[in-house]
Amino acid sequence: MESIITYFETIPSLHRSIILVGGLTFFWLLESGLPLFKFKYKKWKHAIPNLFFTLTTIIINFGLAWILLSTAEWVKVNDFGIINWLPQMPLWLYAFLGVLFLDFFGAYLAHFVEHKVKPLWMVHLVHHTDHKVDTTTANRHHPIESLIRFLFTLIGVVVVGTPIALVFLYQSMSLVFTQFTHANIKIPKGLDRALSYFVVSPDMHKIHHHYRLPYTDSNYGNIFSIWDRIFGTYMYMEREKLVYGVDVFPDEKKNSNISDLLKQPFKKYEKPTLSSDNER
Description:
This protein is mainly α and about 280 residues long. It contains 13 helices and no strands. It has helices at about 1-10, 15-35, 45-65, 65-75, 80-85, 90-115, 120-130, 145-160, 165-180, 190-195, 200-210, 225-230, 260-265.
């Protein structure tokens, strides 16, 4: 465990890029062999806006990285944060709790708030209006959302007290998990359900991408499923009933255009339709 922590403490930017590109490539290829849905689309054309927003996310996170580094160094020097106030524990447990709690602040809480605050929901819509969810959807976030997520992660670093090694470990795990859970792959239902008791599984997250409430407001987790189960936001539906997108923003052409997506947060708010799945 110590060697892993040491590695992530000084992980080169090249290695982080390899994790991003390698994961994307792996799940992209896996989708071709084990598709959940046989989408009738031009895969590369669909990927263009999603990869554009992946690039903007990388640029923003890279530009603000010095704030993250300085904050993580501050909590380490001052022995600040939840995991530093707990009794002494094995390194593996310290690392696990650090990643677990950072997943709550940086992913679950940020995601939950984005769904409950109208202006933030209009920003987050860029992610939800993908009508063909696949692994490229993972980082389809408006630049404003990238800033919001960064802020929540920063708050998490302070409250949890995570050193930079655990921050980089969390970010690497988060990246791979989000590529995995968005990937258009079909794994056995029994295995998916079993995984969902511990981590966020592909089917579990895709329920969150269903086009109507109450499913859209469920399954907010990114790595660990415990947060949805603790706070009562876990929901289940059969994968065959999934319909991607957002019911009040049905224009797939506009939802695939970079210019329109950049203007999405400034459009008029539309109240989502609350209905049961069989009322489609």
